[in-house]
Design brief:
The complex is a heterodimer. Chain A is of the alpha+beta class. In chain A, 46% of the residues lie in helices and 10% in strands. Chain A is built from 8 helices and 4 strands, in the order ααααβααβββαα. In chain A, α2 runs antiparallel to α3. In chain B, α2 crosses α9, α13 runs antiparallel to α17 and α15 runs antiparallel to α17. The longest helix of chain B is centred in the C-terminal third of the chain and has 18 residues. In chain B, α7 links the parallel β2 and β3. In chain B, the strands form 3 sheets. Chain B has a 4-stranded parallel beta sheet, with helices on both faces. Chain B has a 4-stranded mixed beta sheet with strand order 8-7-10-9, with no helix packed on it. The chains are: A alpha+beta, B alpha/beta. Chains A and B meet through α2, α4, α5 and α8 of A and α7, β3, β7, β10 and α13 of B. The complex binds flavin mononucleotide, iron/sulfur cluster and FE2/S2 (inorganic) cluster. Flavin mononucleotide binds next to α4 and β4 of chain B. FE2/S2 (inorganic) cluster binds next to α5 of chain A.
Chain lengths: 209, 423
């Protein structure tokens, strides 16, 4: 039984087909799984592994390296406050402290109702609008303590659902076409390389033995 | 002040509300560079880029034409675009991706034609949700327009482009870590040599990795000729470049300026650019090229915005980010936060980088909190020396990639320039 819904599963298969090796789709597929569940459930990890032709441990091992992939539940809204250099100069530590007080959790924590997770972020590449805040990786502009509280209210009331989808949904624009260029040459070349590698590995094995 | 009348090569379209659409792109000369390139031989296109002397805009500043010529001859090669932009205080690629995605696609198309590549990947930072959507939408439009895919504009040339999201890791901006990530793995940089991407890159095949802004320059170069590009700027730094200005200035933002002909003073103080220091404070120090770069003081503001000019003065133009710190800034706090960043983002493969960054961060933290000890400054410098022997510029390397040797920059600058504050 597939854990991913039929729609997500179809999109996952489309993504796998874009790469010379299925494993390359690992991160995009983790994003898709998070779109469905908000985080990476063990069942989703197994299914991503199967789609990418690797083990679940390899998916987990890769996923835990990356800040945006979560092997534990995350709030509906992940609020990231950048405190890196430009934002630091713009009062980010004070804003983060305020955010902790407003949400009642320390950076890294999730509110008991599961609505907000607060993150202290590294530079979000929007350093002319400080302190920079993202919600579910959508920019919400420079924030003051007062505007931050209003933002939290708007999110809670669902007034921003158009611009800020729930946590996990990253790219809402679907690729319209598959690969079009002739891939015959690529496949031939890759087969040759694989054969050569296998031959080298076999030769090395014989030497050892 | 000397704000030159150099043309806007990569930001010309950004004033339009719909700058990211195919309609606007076509109405403003879009895809004419590609059409022109397809009438030329691939070698002739590469020759124009070589003549332009376009330096890579990702940080290392390697000439794009030279990099292309080093691509190992092979039946199969790849082009990978680096849109991972996460060097702190750098936000130029972000603007280009959201504001003019077709320009990047056209640059990729022309470059792929010159390199005779049939599959290209654009690796975008995962946190760029809007950028990922804009670029994917633009790519869909470009496929429908016949500019990407099979038999592009009836030329016989075919290319597929795939937009690939990252997932939050600074180190994936380093080109070999990026390739690992694109292969579905942890972002561990590979050991160079032998893994120079031009020889052994994606899936072991020869690969060119170029930055987003580098690509954005290509359509103009093909349309106007490499010589016209090389006529701007001076020395090795030709053309214009996007400078991301942040910190204590009145008008932070991205500014496209002619290289070398403009100075840090122009960028920071000109009314149409930075507009000067915020409030009534004065300039204390600035970081000329991303947080990996050593700092400069007010006596260096008249340096030209040129790669060698800044390099010879003991720092680097790096990622094109300039951070301005005013007289009220606590330098210990600034250096501590930068060190904390490196400590969080070290991939952990090399001991000096992994352990050293953590130790440095903890010592900096205690100094920042008033618990510094007599011997801390020596200890800091000793640790820096262990990561990068001599703590000189350009730095010595004991590690797999240059993230490690970048760690000492801010601490060493802080102690050299503002020793009193650290005591
Ligand atoms: C730690 C580290 C981070 C880097 N981050 C980026 C980045 O975010 N974007 C980028 O284009 N280049 C980055 N680079 C430089 C790339 O390794 C590579 O030189 C560049 O993408 C090549 O493109 P270019 O020649 O067009 O500049 C980084 C390098 C290092 C060592
Ligand atoms: S220097 Fe640091 S970031 Fe680079 S490979 Fe070594 S541990 Fe990783
Ligand atoms: S330093 Fe905060 S967004 Fe760049």
């Amino acid at each position: 039984m597939s854990h991913l819904t039929a729609d997500i599963r179809t999109r996952a298969e489309e993504l796998v087909a874009l790469y010379p090796e299925p494993r390359s789709a690992l991160i995009p597929l983790c994003h898709l799984a998070q779109e469905q569940d908000g985080w990476l459930r063990p069942e989703a990890i197994s299914e991503v592994a199967e789609l990418c032709g690797v083990t679940a441990a390899e998916v987990r091992g890769t996923a835990t390296f990356y800040d945006m992939l979560h092997v534990e539940p995350v709030g509906t809204y992940a609020v990231a406050v950048c405190t890196n250099i430009a934002c630091l100069l713009g009062g980010a530590l004070e804003l983060l402290e305020h955010a902790e007080a407003t949400l009642g959790v320390r950076a890294g924590g999730t509110t008991p109702d599961g609505v907000f997770t607060l993150h202290e972020a590294e530079c979000l590449a929007d350093c002319d609008k400080t302190p920079c805040v993202q919600v579910n990786h959508r920019y919400v502009g420079a924030q003051t303590p007062a505007s931050f509280d209003a933002l939290v209210e708007d999110l809670r009331a669902g007034r921003m659902s158009d611009t800020v989808p729930t946590h996990g949904t990253l790219v809402r624009v679907r690729r319209s076409v598959g690969l079009q260029a002739d891939k015959g040459a690529i496949e031939t070349e890759r087969a040759t390389v694989a054969q050569e590698q296998a031959a080298r590995a076999a030769a090395a094995g014989e030497k050892k033995a | 002040m000397a704000i030159t009348d150099a043309p806007k090569i990569i930001t010309a379209r950004l004033g339009y509300d719909d700058s990211f659409t195919l309609e606007r792109y076509l109405a403003t000369g879009g895809y004419t560079g590609l059409r022109k390139a397809l009438t030329m031989t691939p070698e002739a296109v590469a020759a124009e880029v070589d003549a332009a002397s376009l330096l890579g805009r990702g940080g290392a500043g390697f000439p794009a034409g030279r990099k292309w010529s080093m691509l190992r001859k092979n039946p199969l090669t790849y082009l990978v675009i680096n849109g991972d932009e996460s060097e702190p205080a750098t936000f130029k690629d972000h603007m280009l991706i959201e504001g003019d995605p077709h320009q990047i696609l056209e640059g990729v198309l022309i470059s792929a034609y010159a390199l005779q590549v049939t599959q290209a990947f654009i690796y975008l930072r995962g946190e760029f949700a809007l950028g990922l959507e804009r670029l994917q939408a633009a790519l869909n439009e470009a496929y429908a327009h016949g500019a990407v895919g099979s038999n592009i504009f009836d030329s016989g040339f075919s290319l597929d482009i795939v937009v690939h999201p990252g997932a939050g890791a600074y180190i994936c901006g380093e080109e070999t870590a990026l390739l690992e990530s694109l292969e579905g793995k942890r972002g561990f940089p590979r050991i160079k040599p032998p893994f120079f991407p031009a020889a052994i890159g994606l899936y072991g095949e020869p690969t060119v990795v170029n930055n987003v802004e580098t690509m954005a320059n290509i359509p103009w170069i093909v349309n106007n000729g490499g010589a016209a590009f090389a006529a701007l700027g001076a020395g090795r730094s030709t053309g214009t470049r996007l400078f991301a200005l942040a910190g204590h200035v009145r008008n932070p933002g991205n500014y496209e300026l002619e290289m070398v002909k403009t100075t840090f003073r122009d960028l920071i103080y000109a009314p149409v650019l930075g507009g000067g220091i915020r409030g009534s404070n004065t300039l204390k120090a600035f970081i000329p090229g991303g947080v990996s770069a050593p700092w400069f003081g007010p006596d260096q503001v008249d340096l030209p915005l040129g790669q060698d000019e800044v390099g010879n003065a003991g720092s680097m133009l790096g990622s094109g980010s300039v951070v301005v710190m005013d007289s009220a800034t606590c330098m210990v706090r600034a250096a501590w936060r930068i060190t904390k960043f490196f400590s969080r983002e070290s991939c952990g493969q090399c001991t000096p980088c992994r352990e050293g960054s953590g130790w440095l961060e903890r010592i900096m933290y205690r100094i920042e909190n008033g618990d510094g000890r007599e011997e801390d400054l020596d200890l800091l410098m000793d640790l820096c020396d262990n990561i990068s022997p001599g703590v000189a510029w350009p730095p010595q390397q004991t590690t797999i990639c240059v993230l490690g040797p970048s760690i000492p920059s801010s601490i060493a600058s802080g102690i050299r320039m503002f020793r009193d504050e650290f005591l």
